[in-house]
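Recap quiz, item 2
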Amino acid sequence: EAQVTQNPRYLITVTGKKLTVTCSQNMNHEYMSWYRQDPGLGLRQIYYSMNVEVTDKGDVPEGYKVSRKEKRNFPLILESPSPNQTSLYFCASSLSSQGSSPLHFGNGTRLTVT
Amino acid sequence: AQSVTQPDIHITVSEGASLELRCNYSYGATPYLFWYVQSPGQGLQLLLKYFSGDTLVQGIKGFEAEFKRSQSSFNLRKPSVHWSDAAEYFCAVGAAETLSFGAGTTVTVRA
């Protein structure tokens, strides 16, 4: 089944404790992206990747890192999480980066930073 | 840069009634336009998309949307709403490398 898999689904952590949210897609998609969803703000893009070893900042990259060492994986790293990073995070992928390709979303990771 | 506005934060509609969700966008060229739906606890699912051609596009679950260039709008419609349509709906506009989402409209369906 074609899908984007994020783990974990729920995560509670404390300020400053490094964490990684994994994302994997099995559709051989070139483009992958991370979004955070906050009430009243919709989805805001954190980082995106147009292909292996190519990553770029989205609208809200501060406090986050990503890597794209393999085509299928695009982990999101929070080196020193803070409470303002409490949010619902979505990983997504699409066939190409041309803006016309629909995104396929994971089921989300709800992160709480205390 | 592109931007999207969804003027309605929350809409309540009776089952069987029609539904229209508004979306206005700002973009310098003809955009790629999308509507996504998010059911509780789920990721976003694509309802429909517009790239070019016929300005009335049909999607899944009986939804349709109309692109109006003169109004910079891409409103979503459904003639008869079912209880399972209760969800949050997001309009999005795509450029070369990024996709911008509106803040979303929550739809409540009452019996």
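Chain B touches chain A at residues 4, 6, 9, 31-32, 34, 36, 41-46, 49, 51, 90, 94-104 (CB under 8 Å).
Chain B has a mean pLDDT of 92.
End of item.
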